[in-house]
Hints:
RNA-binding, 35 strands
Amino acid sequence: MITVTLKDGSTKQCEAGMTLYELALDLGPRLAKAACAGSVNGENVDLRTALTEDCTVEIFTFDTPEGKHAFWHSASHVLAQAVLRLFPGAKFAIGPAIANGFYYDFDMDTPFTAEDLPMIEEEMARIVKEALPIEQFHLSANKALELFKNQPYKQELIQKHAAAGEAISLYRQGEFTDLCAGPHLMDTSPIRAIKLTSATGAYWHGDSRLPMLSRIYGTAYPKQGELDAYLAMLEEAKKRDHRKLGKELELFALLDEGPGFPFFLPNGMVVRNNLLDYWREVHHRYGYSEIATPIVLNQELWHRSGHWDHYKNNMYTTKVDEGDYAIKPMNCPGGMLVYKTKMHSYRDLPLRMAELGLVHRHEMSGALHGLMRVRAFTQDDAHIFMTPAQIKEEIIGVINLFDELYSRFGLAYNIELSTMPDDHMGDEAVWRMAEADLQEAMESIGRTFTVNPGDGAFYGPKLDFHLLDALGRTWQCGTVQLDFQMPERFELEYIAEDGKPHRPVMIHRAGLGSIERFIGILIEHFAGAFPTWLAPVQAKLVPISEAHHEYAERVRQQLDAAGIRVENDTRNEKMNYKIREAQLKKVPYILVMGDKEMEANTVAVRARKEANGGVKSVDDFIAMVQAEVANREL
RNA sequence: GCUGGUGUGGCUCAGGGGUAGAGCAGCGCACUCGUAAUGCGCAGGUCGACAGUUCGAAUCUGUCCACCAGCUCCA
């Protein structure tokens, strides 16, 4: 007998050799039915894994990230199997599980198109029906090379694994065998609802010098209803696309004359300015001052900061009076120079200087995407200068500030810690210390996070904040980067209590990330229906006929004087037409006025949230909207 | 940047080697209306740019530009 410790801490005596699946069955048939994979002592494994000694185990159903991963990974194998049945000459490369499904890359004489997908889906459904057991086995590298003798991509992978001294793990389902580390489902039968979503090109190893393969993306669920819900979410996302809404609501424009350089239209500017008012209010409360630094600075500065060595491919350069200059891709060097404009005492620290800095970065033309990925954007940046002893508390302060910022919009988030990349400045020891500081700060306030190894900035490790919007999609916005390098390079100093100069530590941080991207996210999150405090037009007046135009104009003046963004629709159109249009423009309040309202000095309120908002006096309506805006209600 | 696709009035789109089409929006007129589209009329485009083929190109070919889906990258 062995002792098995379950996730909840309880223990169970089992016979040695019992498999995870049998354990799940023992815990409950429903759990066993829903189980996708499991873990033994923290290692993710198949349900077929036998338990041979005392251990800690976990069972993953589809509702867990690990369970979904195994499910989708198995689905990708089913995809490859179906393709090989239909196209026996196909060369197959790799096929992992990804965020919302899976893909598989193939080398085809004729690349797949959308028309090929239904046929492949049908073949996949057949494989699922066959309920083929999925079983792991191992081979020597030579035998594996022999098995995949007509599969050059698999051969390359086998050789790579063999060279690294790794075992060659394979999975078999029916006639299909793939090189794979797993874990996988026990058989193909649970993959009942499948949708192949697209066929595109993708480079082998993601390297544009290598051959382009034909990639099929798909997703799969245990139940048709769950797949339908996911597909409905994709449809909804399409309707909320900020590029479409940005045009319809006249928020911003992207023109041929400036690819990747967005134009903000009057409506978009209202959203932006109100967002920034809020941002300034919060930063003031958290003890930040605000600065502005130049967009064009000389190249010597960029050499000193290290950007020239690590970032010049993304930088625009220019000449000023024969001198070499660059357009800033980041705000930090400017912030350094501001710090150096005077002597600092330890009493000044921590010094928090924020900057809404317009940066320009040359992104590849194919990477541009609406407001989400542009070549010029405004970062809500800040640099915090402090003593090493203040690091933890400052990081906590930043996390709390970000929490407040995001909650205002109803955006949930999760945090990732990105560690030292290959291309970095400074010694590893300093990096590890900085990583530990970030980690300890989060742990001390009970924040959970995941680690993203090797993904830090070239000057320091960072925390990335990934926001979750109304559709459950994630967006990277906030970032907190701890930097020991830049203060060194710029020889920053403060005078400590001992009267001697010391080097401060610095935090770079941006909460909204990029104002442009954040507005894009808000557009999609709210589906263009901004909360009243952000709405470009807060109230639309709809006089029923010409007889009411004069009254409507008086009301307009009253609302305008009360600071409400109001428009009076006096066009020669029917009321229903005007209401429909205001509704499509997602105006929070539509005020209809006819004889009754004119007589009683009232307005008939039609709120976006509830169609019949009742009849209110003009004063009551003003008070209501003012309160809603003052509280920045969602 | 690479692979594939797209580019026709402000917007959404049809057409397609023989002298530019619709709906919406805009403008004018009539209607004066009670909670999601009143009717009639008018105006608006050298069909992304540049070359080429042709008697003739928006339509065919080439190059370029922009956009879209991916790859890659990231705020």
